[in-house]
Amino acid sequence: MRYLIDTHVALWLLKGEQISETAKAALDDVTAEVFVSIVSAWEIAVKIGAGKLKYDGGVKAFIDDVKLNEFKLLGVETSYIEKIEELEYHHRDPFDRLLIATAIVDDMTFLSADENVPKYDVNWLW
């Protein structure tokens, strides 16, 4: 199974915080491929710059931690951007919309605690 984890889930995992038992079981599967989008790094950089988030070492440390934890870093493809046009506006956050579009296009299961995610036609788990 291929999973794309939402920004907040990546932060929780990297900080050793608790996630849902369902999500934990999915990620503990040895066959699971776990992806973090560069969009999450962008979101973190924006929030650090705005003073809304602290991450020791900044966004570079976040990216290093993603790689150290053997999550696969995923770039942004034009097909993800094009998919955003089709998405309904259940969610206004541009980062989340791009992450949802990514999961849809790449047929991944999106791991997120965000209550807006299940409103989309995306494989979702929490």
List the topology elements:
Layout: E1 2-5, H1 7-14, H2 21-28, E2 33-37, H3 38-49, H4 58-68, E3 72-74, H5 78-84, H6 94-105, E4 109-111, E5 124-125
Parallel strand pairs: 1-2, 1-4, 2-3, 4-5
Describe this structure as you would to a colleague.
The chain has 126 residues and is an alpha/beta fold. It has one domain (2-125): 3-Layer(aba) Sandwich (Rossmann fold), CATH 3.40.50. It has helices spanning 7-14, 21-28, 38-49, 58-68, 78-84, 94-105; strands spanning 2-5, 33-37, 72-74, 109-111, 124-125. A 5-stranded parallel beta sheet has the order 3-2-1-4-5, with helices on both faces. Helix 3 (38-49) runs antiparallel to helix 4 and helix 5 (78-84) crosses helix 6 (94-105). The model has no long low-confidence stretch (mean pLDDT 96).
